[in-house]
Amino acid sequence: MKIYHRWLLSYLPAFLAIVSILIFLFFTAMGNYSKQQAVKANEVFAQNILQTLDSLLQYSEKMIIKEVLTNERIRLFYDGGQWSDPYENYEISQRVRDLSTYLLSIDSIYLYRASDQVVLTPNTMIQLDQFADHSFVEYANEAKSTRAWSEIRTFREFQGDGSSQKKVVSLWKRIPLGTGVQGLIVANVQISKLEETIRDLLDSDLNFLALSDAKGMPILGEVDDSNKVLSEVTSAYTGWTIQSGFKQTNTYGYFASISKAWYAAVLLSVLAGIVWLFLATRKHYRPIQLIESSIRLYTERNLNETSSGERQDEYHFIRKAVDDLVQYSHDYEKKVEESVVFRRKLLFKRIMEDTEPLLAEEWDQEMKRFELTDRISHFAVIVFEIDRYDAVFDAYSGRDQNLLKFVVSAAVGETGQQKNTQVWCEWMSQKQLGVMIMAEDGQVGGEDGLQSFCKSIRQWIEQNMPFTVSCGIGSVIDNHQYISRSYLEALEALQYTSIYGCNATISFKEITTPPQGHALQYAEQIRLTAQAFRAGDNKWEDQLHDLFAIFISAALRREDAINCINYFIFALDKECKSLPLGLCMIWEQEALPGIRDKVKGFVKIEEVEKPIAQILRNLTEQFQLQKQKRISHKLILQIKEYIETHYYNPDLSLVHVSEIFQLHMKSVSRLFKEEFGENFVDYVAKVRLEQAKKYLTEENSDSVQEIARKVGYSHAITFIRIFKKSVGTTPGDYRKSNRN
């Protein structure tokens, strides 16, 4: 007998016995589960009813608030007084009636104006003390409740009209909504309308439901003592509580009680099944034990298992051995896959850079290995370059950069599929993606097809990525041995982004490659422009503009443009180093770092001219200011010396000095103030008074009048007044005090 049948016959009796017991227990558990589900369903039923009521009342509240905020007539009603326009009041009452009609849940609405104690209803406008619901208005004015809706109450509009009172719940809002000093708006919802709303839910032979307000007063239905409450839900909005349950809970009761004899029979059956399983397991464990022993023996021999003395569970040991085998297989497959990706990239670079040409047989072999068709007859290479790579990618981590590049590669591949074009793309550098377009029998699409392919990718990247790319297109070739030529042409086309700018498609056929070293012919013009700036020539800006115009018209390659601009910076640095020390420091510390920062990472030549011109313009202004300061300092020292030697001249004044030194009076005054921190007139007076003090302290000195004349004052009175104002005493008293 097969082992399968032996095991089956061994475990089948125990299995049948245990299954029978489980079936019995299953139906018992199902009874409990049914009751639990019934309780949950009842709770959901109560929540649905409460949500229905809350939604109805919330919608009514929002519409009332909207009407208060947007209806100009209602605002005018609360702003007006006893002289308000009756027609306006009629219009407002009609609007209130319309609102009650529109909101089906609302039974009635009335407005209360606090300024003159007037209540406006859809039917009349009366004083508060004559209004049948005046007690609720007074309660609403004084109430501090945070809930929007009142407890259940009775409402009647007119006193003594014989009409029956209605059971309602009321919404009240103070006007204005922020302060409530102008009055109230009250909306009443009749309990019967709420009952109509949920009538379909209440008409059930199975469920019962009771709704009570926040104070426990019944609104709809009551709880019968014969019924058992299974769910109780309270609304956070109104504070109302719904109690619900089943009218006949015994329908979902438990199964009949199980006798002790049945329990004993179940227990004996389980014990018999356990013994049976134990014996059968012991009998059939032997083969498994042999398998485990064989695996352990092999492991100890090949893996040098540690001799810790601990014995693992057999199934765990076998499972671990199988898991190790699966993991080893997975790692091997992963390494093979990584090897394929790496080899594919190396092959792509080998083809593009032509480091080791592929023979025809080797080409066919590699194409089959990487699942590329071997019937390709035409090729074209496109290089996509990320514009302003350093400025864009510095903000991203290495992981994010790799993710962005993966997205670009995926976009290229998907675009190729959409255009039924076979593409092979790999990243050749940090910012350049090489793409090989492959087709059979000239299906590349020519120049127009390549332009369309590049345009689709550029537009997608511009719309979905945080950067743009420029495309260089090489020529279409019909031999795989010349793919590297098309790649070099694509790289050469990208050199002309200095002319075309960012997010451009440049075909090699569109450019004219200048001769090698042609940029050297601009060296002399660069030196002359730098020298003109150093010499302070007024036409240096024109020369700078002409120089960049030459660069643009010459259609310089990006590499040549960078070399020319760097040479211009070098020439400027060389010329400015011959400036005086102060000016040279301004150039080295401010201007030169600024220029280098502005030209870093530029794409088009036009982007460089304006920043360089602005920096040099600011530098020229600083040079002029420094030069002016040096000339002014020398001149003002000469004026100071002249004052100190000609103080005795009564004509020594600002006008006199201006004429002597051929300067404007304001210039002399400003320079003198800036240099010495005092006015010209005050300085002249100080020099004269210092000389007068010397004369006054000499023995046998002249009279005060004579001393005044010697120091440049034609009138002694003027001298005495100025001396006393400055020194604090008269010249005569000064003489006496100093002689004593």
From TrEMBL:
Pfam families: GGDEF_2, HTH_18. Gene3D superfamilies: Homeodomain-like. Keywords: DNA-binding, Membrane, Transcription, Transcription regulation, Transmembrane, Transmembrane helix. It comes from the Bacteria. The chain crosses the membrane at residues 7-27, 261-279. GO terms for molecular function: DNA-binding transcription factor activity; sequence-specific DNA binding. Residues 637-737 form the HTH araC/xylS-type domain. This is HTH araC/xylS-type domain-containing protein. The lineage of its organism: Bacteria, Bacillati, Bacillota, Bacilli, Bacillales.
